[in-house]
Amino acid sequence: MSKFVHVVNFWLKKDLNEQDKAAFVEGVTSLGQIKDLATFHIGQPASTSRPVIDSSYDYCLVCTFQSQQDHDAYQVDPIHDVFRDECAKYWDKVLIYDSVGI
After folding, report:
1. Is a pLDDT exceeding 80 seen at residue 79?
2. Rounded Cα gap, residues 79 and 86, in angstroms
3. Maximum CA pair distance of the chain?
4. What is the pLDDT of residue 85?
5. What per-residue confidence (pLDDT) applies to 2?
6. Which residues does 32 contact at the CB level (< 8 Å), separation at least 6?
7. How many Å apart are CA 99 and CA 71, to the nearest integer?
8. CA 15 to chain centre
């Protein structure tokens, strides 16, 4: 079981065209190539509806790692740097939730 979970929610700019959205998806998908990952998931809000659910984001990235050291290496991987540099222009807001297993 992975010991470190990195959850990133993205709110894209409202005026993006389909080409921009596709470029974002391609960019975020490229992160799955980083060798330090244990698991990798990209999704959009599920069609669940309860008062405690926030489905206001556009995309959710969930990465798991065997250790915080693997997570830290992921953060400085050149693929991650390219994603941030090339895709930051597509989002208005990002929220990150990191957790460790208990």
Report:
1. yes
2. 11
3. 42
4. 98
5. 61
6. 40, 42
7. 11
8. 21
Which of 60, 67, 10 is closest to 37 using CA atoms? 67
pLDDT digits (tens, 9 = 90+) for 85-100: 999 999 999 999 999 9
- Taking the model in full, what pTM does it have? 0.93
Residue 26 has pLDDT above 80, yes or no: yes
3-state SS assignment for residue 89: helix
DSSP string spanning 38-74? SEEEEE---S---TT-----SEEEEEEESSHHHHHHH
Residues 6+ away with beta carbon under 8 Å from 60: 7, 8, 9, 10, 41, 42, 43, 44, 45
Domains of the chain by start residue, with CATH: 4-46+55-100 (3.30.70.100)
